[in-house]
Amino acid sequence: MSNQYYDYQLTLDKLIRKAALIYPDVEVVHAPPGGPIIRSNYAKEWDRIQRLGSALEELGVSPGEPGKFGSRIAVLDWNTIRHFELYYGVPMYGAVLHTVNVLLAPEDIIYTLLQAQDEVLFINEDFISLARIVTSLVKSIKKVVIMSDELEHEEVSFDGVKVYWYEDLIRDARPYNFPELSENTVATMMFTSGTTGRPKGTYFTHRQLVLHAMSVALSLSAPPINANIYDVAMPLVPMFHVHAWGLPYIATLVGIKQVYPGRFDWGWVLKLIKDEGVTITNGVPTILFNLLYHPDSPKYDLRGLKFIVGGSALPRGLLEEASRRGIHVVQGFGLTETAPVILLTMEKANMRNWPEDRKRELVLSAGLPIPLVDIRVVDGQGRDVPRDGKTMGELVVRAPWITREYLNDPEKTRNAWRDGWFHTDDIAVWDSEGYVWIMDRAKDVIKSGGEWISSTRLEDLISTHPAVYEVAVIGVPHPKWGERPVAIVVPKPGQKVTEEEIRNYLMGLVNEGKMPKWWIPDKVVIVESELPKTSTGKVDKKVLRERFQITLE
Amino acid sequence: MSNQYYDYQLTLDKLIRKAALIYPDVEVVHAPPGGPIIRSNYAKEWDRIQRLGSALEELGVSPGEPGKFGSRIAVLDWNTIRHFELYYGVPMYGAVLHTVNVLLAPEDIIYTLLQAQDEVLFINEDFISLARIVTSLVKSIKKVVIMSDELEHEEVSFDGVKVYWYEDLIRDARPYNFPELSENTVATMMFTSGTTGRPKGTYFTHRQLVLHAMSVALSLSAPPINANIYDVAMPLVPMFHVHAWGLPYIATLVGIKQVYPGRFDWGWVLKLIKDEGVTITNGVPTILFNLLYHPDSPKYDLRGLKFIVGGSALPRGLLEEASRRGIHVVQGFGLTETAPVILLTMEKANMRNWPEDRKRELVLSAGLPIPLVDIRVVDGQGRDVPRDGKTMGELVVRAPWITREYLNDPEKTRNAWRDGWFHTDDIAVWDSEGYVWIMDRAKDVIKSGGEWISSTRLEDLISTHPAVYEVAVIGVPHPKWGERPVAIVVPKPGQKVTEEEIRNYLMGLVNEGKMPKWWIPDKVVIVESELPKTSTGKVDKKVLRERFQITLE
Fold this sequence. Notes:
The structure is a homodimer.
Chain A: H1 13-22, E1 27-30, E2 38-41, H2 42-58, E3 72-76, H3 81-93, E4 96-99, H4 106-116, E5 120-124, H5 128-137, E6 143-147, E7 162-165, H6 166-172, E8 186-191, E9 201-205, H7 206-220, E10 232-234, H8 247-254, E11 257-260, H9 266-275, E12 280-283, H10 285-293, E13 306-309, H11 316-324, E14 328-334, E15 341-344, H12 356-362, E16 368-369, E17 374-378, E18 393-398, H13 410-416, E19 417-418, E20 421-430, E21 436-441, E22 446-448, E23 451-453, H14 455-462, E24 468-478, E25 482-491, H15 499-511, E26 523-526, H16 541-547
Parallel strand pairs in A: 1-11, 3-4, 3-5, 4-8, 5-6, 6-7, 10-11, 10-12, 12-13, 13-14, 25-26
Antiparallel strand pairs in A: 1-2, 8-9, 14-15, 15-16, 17-18, 18-20, 19-20, 20-21, 22-23, 24-25
């Protein structure tokens, strides 16, 4: 029952070919800090992507098919227009785009390249030194392609590896005639950031990326984002993180202008928002924080900016400040393994007459499942917990865009994919309106006397104290209770706060019925320096636990 | 490379299950003319659909699989809540929902049922007499299920056919545990309206319906419709026409309130729009006309209503009147064979600063290809015609939701599916902005001296004359030119117009550069009665050609 009409494939070429045909003059802008700015558009990008196809052929790259990976092509780059071209050209050729997190330790980067067995390495010229180390250790890499804004370049050589320059390859190439691939051809590969243990490999097919883009695009068209064809997108999620949450695909799908800001310079990003009329962007809470509290920020009118936040819990104070500045915020939730988006805090039909405050409260949740995503929240025996917004369980998910497995790790794979569901390892509650509230990573839940305390929720409560800049709560072994919470608090610059004040403040919240008394931390440690972060900007609790070897009794 | 996580299927249960889980209290309203109104919601509908599953099992219905049709279930019904339940329950069971156009001649209805070999017939009680005729001739039908709003009912018997009552079946049934189907299971079957020859059978899989709903929903979120989660949908396209253009699926996908108006009574429909807060609906131009010119219409404030028009060309005067009433109109284009939507007149990113008039002009086109749809406009040799908005060619299409074939008609199938593309048999021009303008059905193009005249375009021009109510242009054999156009004109009630006046008016348009002089019809026939229509409300040119046996010389 298969024919070429009936089984028209969900492949990435459908997005960029269409954009070139219907939205040829809509801009795709390459705007690295300080410039020079390159103003391309969908017609020109389609031409460059076709030439990239021929360049890949010249480099000896092999296409794959369902069940067989094409050549893995590693990329070390910021958010640039060439990275955008690789997002399309490599998968459309049938090869696998391996986006590499440049913020990982070199040791971990090398580990991921060894796992992926990449054949070609595309690098931004900022990473030439790193690439030398990498190629000396990862013997599968035979070719390096350097991406630079400079048309003139010095000779660069690598031991045992051929060096090419991206712009030379593109300039000399003919437009490639991309094949009609099966939608089940693997398109991308990337590794989890690995707050626990080594990075784990995940991969995604064309079909998965197209369906993810469709579902997220549809969800973003709902309030509070009301995404629109008149929006201008600038991905601030690094493109080496899970498809920049799909924004380069979504923006192409709907045919809107895109702006690529290069490496991340927040003063420059603020200027681009104004100069290029950017209206929609994304990032972890830290990125939103950077935009709001940059010294230049007060100079800019950010009203109407649409911000998709995710990656770690959104602090209430940050949401309130963003709202004060007129920014529309939606929170998304997902994992590298889920491509990433599975939940989004879009509004529902029954909320039309809700006051704005009540609607905004839901933006602090992880959201509703987006179209085509099924979820459950289950206890240790796999039974659904009550949807009461209180009872904690593990979030499990089914969707057309979950990675098939962890690369080279059948044991971890068996552990995560059980009983027909992918297990997220996140502890959540589900409320009666359908919004999921992530309470903790399973490993960060504090198990005190048989009850669970959500470290994230407790952090959220402590962060409402006006003098608190940052807070992390960790579980510390306790002889009687098994574990008890300890809070590490960083006061705002120029302000002071004591353990006593924090404990009194929390007792006030207890009296207001906002938390149980037994959640009050056994210890509050005040520190002056910023908390240690992972490469994705999340507080690194592993390091914190090592640093604060606290004994409770 | 197949596993249950990776290959999560695009099946219709994903839409209604999710709606019941996340939008349980959002209303689904059954509102037949004069009432009584039944207020259901997604949670209750999910319960009734599960019971319908058990009823289908009790009726001995067989599920299908890819490559093998399940039992065909024919439905004769208006736009009711039970029809909505069948839209989900029958395909989710694995059977094939055959929606029957009740406006076809009984002979054609019987023809389609013989072609489909339906096993069970679900009928609105309005169609008991028709069903008696049908079942006496279509021997594959063993069971009839009568759908009625009355809970008490008299005994009804059919010769040789068992009779059931829908509400009795549902009341007595347990919730059915629907199977996890392959997305390539056939879900629906329907027949083209057959303006030429016998109706032709088409069919669609779960995957096709889900992808169609996603793509149309995303397109409708763009201006000028700006569809939103706060919309309230009422399908006015009869549900026996190509999935009511997908609206019952789209509304469920995004979780908005739905209203089903029963058989079509335009005064009642206007009242429902007001009483139920309906904001989005759809239909052929005649339906829009009925809403605007109904005697009760002036009593109603239609500002903000969103109307998706299609099925035949939208007259300019109708669009202008709708705009005056504050209705937002978008035109869609498609065929029964295309599920149906492939084009929609959504706006594009580069039109932000266009004046409203210029944007509205594009609503008169057939639109842009929606996401995942590829099109070409080709000449007789299969070569792309220039995208100049002038050169005519045939519109050909590829999309994930084209029917696989014409049922039992390999010759017609081979003729339509050629060179990798589905041939629409529609003559179009494509403009530089990407909008397609349908000029004619291939058979209605008038070939005059080797050049093509679009009868539709000529009708559109003649209809701008202030005294013209309706117009049709047909090609009439001509000894010298091969064919020449003849116009049949119906003046507005109470107004008069002569052939002379129409010809002078057109000469004025020629002088303004709006049409070539050789397009002026050789004859203009003024008639007082309405033009004959097909069951889908289109002017029946076959009948017109028979009625006006004109000889030109």
